[in-house]
Amino acid sequence: MNRKQEALKRLTAIGKRVVDDIKNNRFPALEIPSRSVDNIIYDTKLRQYILGDEKIVRNAKNIKHLRAFTQLLWIAYFSKELLKNNKTSTLRDIYYSAQAYHVDFEDQDESDEMITELESIIKMPREDFNIYPEERSAIFGDLTIEYTVPGYEGKTLVLTTHPDGVMIGPALTTANFIKTSADKVIVIEKGALFTRFIEEKVYEKYKSILIATAGQAPRSTRYLIRRLNRELGLPVYIFTDADPWGMHIAMVIISGSANAAHVTDLVTPDAKWAGVWASDIKYYKLPSDPLTEIDIKRLYELKEDPRYNEEIWKREIDEFLRIKKKSEQEAFARYGLTYIVDKYLPTKLKEMEK
């Protein structure tokens, strides 16, 4: 049974449970894992946040629960219809589709919250029941994929086909990996640097698959990174801006986030943050800006986060606080447009591969 079939089975079970309650003259109720801060635990073995054992019960008998209970059931129904009809939907589509069924959501944040609740109940990410965010990440490299989505089954694509990279959407995320000459994955925060790496043929020079996250990596992109690491055995190296927010972009890929503690298939624990580090600012004499009060506050928050207990993270957080500076990936351009490819990148990869 594939993941889509499993999701359909679990969604059907929710409906059956509700119908059985009604047939037996009981008010329908659903047990939902609590996603409160107190129930989010860092699992050192899995190296990510997970949910604890606390549950909440949403019961149709309680009039205060009725609106949310109805919303949740409609999301489950709509998701099941997507799977049955081989359709996909964006988070935004869900919000507007609800209006056609006279299901009331105050805004998209509320409908997104219900989708997250459904994920926690069936213990599967929304992508498994065909709900996706808007695409904004891209991939490029010598990887041949085979589509599995309806209408394109069996069709193949080499991911060097488009010079701007291929958008990471549902069809690509669920495709089969056929063959690759790559021996690593390089994840890049900035689209401009992704374009530079393509122009300078980093994918050939360093036998790599390039992925642009465009900031914080969407969940579909994190899932794809995990697949490349697990299924193809490719090590993953992450390059971000040298600031606390860049650090966190890398960490979310490596260890997930508290907000997605109910999903376990999005993390790549063996991925490595390769730079740009605080210590690189000094070593490479990079143009920099002063850290803001918000940046400094964020660094102290990271110091308290158990995911940042390894030496490299503690060292770089302390270095940020010492120099009180931050820098961007593009800062290497002060030495020429290709310096980051010709000098910085090979040095970092050699250091990471030790």
Any overview of this molecule?
With 354 residues, the chain is α/β, with parallel strands linked by helices. The protein folds into two domains: 3-132, Arc Repressor Mutant, subunit A (Orthogonal Bundle), CATH 1.10.10.10; 182-352, Dna Topoisomerase Vi A Subunit, Chain: A, domain 2, CATH 3.40.1360.10. It contains 13 helices and 17 strands. It has helices at residues 3-23, 63-84, 91-100, 108-122, 170-173, 191-199, 202-205, 219-232, 244-255, 278-283, 293-303, 311-323, 339-352; strands at 29-33, 40-43, 48-51, 55-59, 89-90, 131-132, 138-140, 143-146, 156-158, 166-167, 176-180, 184-188, 208-212, 236-239, 272-275, 289-290, 325-326. A six-stranded mixed beta sheet has the order 10-7-13-12-14-15, sandwiched between helices. The protein has a three-stranded antiparallel beta sheet with strand order 9-8-11, with no helix packed on it. A two-stranded antiparallel ribbon has the order 1-4. Strand 14, helix 9 (244-255) and strand 15 form a beta-alpha-beta unit. It is globular.
**CATH level 1 name of the largest domain:** Alpha Beta
Number of strands: 17
Structural class label: alpha/beta
Tell me roughly what share of residues is in helical segments: 40-55%
Number of structurally distinct domains: 2
Along the chain, the helix and strand elements come as HEEEEHEHHEEEEEHEEHHEHEHEHEHHEH
In the CATH hierarchy, what is the architecture of the largest domain at level 2? 3-Layer(aba) Sandwich
Largest sheet: 6 strands, mixed
**Average predicted local confidence, pLDDT:** 94
Termini Cα gap: 40 Å
